[in-house]
Q: What sequence folds into this?
């Protein structure tokens, strides 16, 4: 088993926004993956508790796990009251791990006051989530305070909540024109491992051209190995996110590549 074996293989449902929940589940199962993060934009909208419960049942009936709820809740002052319905939906979905976002336009070079405003919202949200034994994790994304590992870590330390973690994805906004990782990227990721939840896995060039995952053979295995041990107590996934041409047919090959890198065997698909 590889050092990355503490990451389970999974899929972000936003990869196939054009497919139904049962179709996403079938693809995930057939590809030999273990779970799905259900997105809050299309498949499991915030407040649709019946739909969330249906998605949960469809997922578990196929022998899969709900990896997390991928909300689009942004940590600005206007969203202080938005965390309740998001947590309600996650509970109906059967998960205690919820993705949230830092607001766009407040970046790593932001002022102390701007950073503090975001931290205050996240602190309030984390407190509400803790009362329900739930964990929040930050989307790692360009154009926000989580655009770099150092800024993300500073934010997590400023909040200091035991139930606030972060994701990581390849920072395509800070790569060479070929999409190759810059030197030190694995070291950057290592700075986040005490807080690390999921890793979003894809292979893009800097112009966002999507390539088969196997094109990342030269760097992804080391990156996944560097993503351990991660945040203790979390059910952590390496989540495939987006595929070439948005074509469901390409998922099988990308999943096989990911399973090989993780040293995993496909789960038993129910007959």
A:
């Amino acid at each position: 088993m590889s050092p990355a074996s503490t990451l389970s293989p999974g899929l972000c449902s936003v990869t196939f926004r054009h497919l139904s929940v049962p179709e996403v589940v079938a693809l995930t199962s057939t590809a030999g993956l273990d779970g799905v993060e259900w997105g809050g934009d299309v498949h499991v909208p915030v407040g649709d508790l019946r739909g969330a419960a249906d998605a949960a049942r469809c997922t578990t009936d196929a022998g899969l796990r709900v990896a997390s709820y991928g909300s689009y809740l942004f940590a600005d002052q206007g969203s202080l009251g938005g965390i309740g319905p998001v947590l309600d939906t996650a509970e109906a979905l059967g998960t205690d791990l919820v993705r949230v976002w830092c607001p766009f336009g407040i970046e790593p070079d932001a002022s102390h006051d701007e950073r503090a405003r975001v931290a205050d919202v996240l602190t309030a949200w984390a407190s509400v989530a803790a009362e329900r034994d739930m964990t929040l994790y930050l989307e790692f994304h360009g154009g926000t305070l989580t655009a770099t590992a150092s800024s993300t870590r500073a934010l997590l330390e400023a909040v200091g909540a035991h139930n606030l973690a972060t994701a990581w994805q390849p920072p395509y906004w800070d790569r060479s024109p070929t999409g190759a990782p810059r030197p030190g990227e694995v070291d950057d990721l290592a700075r986040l491992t005490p807080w690390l939840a999921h890793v979003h896995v894809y292979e893009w060039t800097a112009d966002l051209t999507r390539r088969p995952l196997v094109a990342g053979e030269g760097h992804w295995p080391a990156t996944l190995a560097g993503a351990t041990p991660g945040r203790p107590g979390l059910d952590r996934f390496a989540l495939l996110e987006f595929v070439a041409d948005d074509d469901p047919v390409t998922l099988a090959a990308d999943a096989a590549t990911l399973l090989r890198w993780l040293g995993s065997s496909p789960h038993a698909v129910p007959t």
Q: What stands out?
A: DSSP finds eight helices and eight strands in the chain. Residues 112-131 form the longest helix (20 residues). The chain has a mean pLDDT of 92.
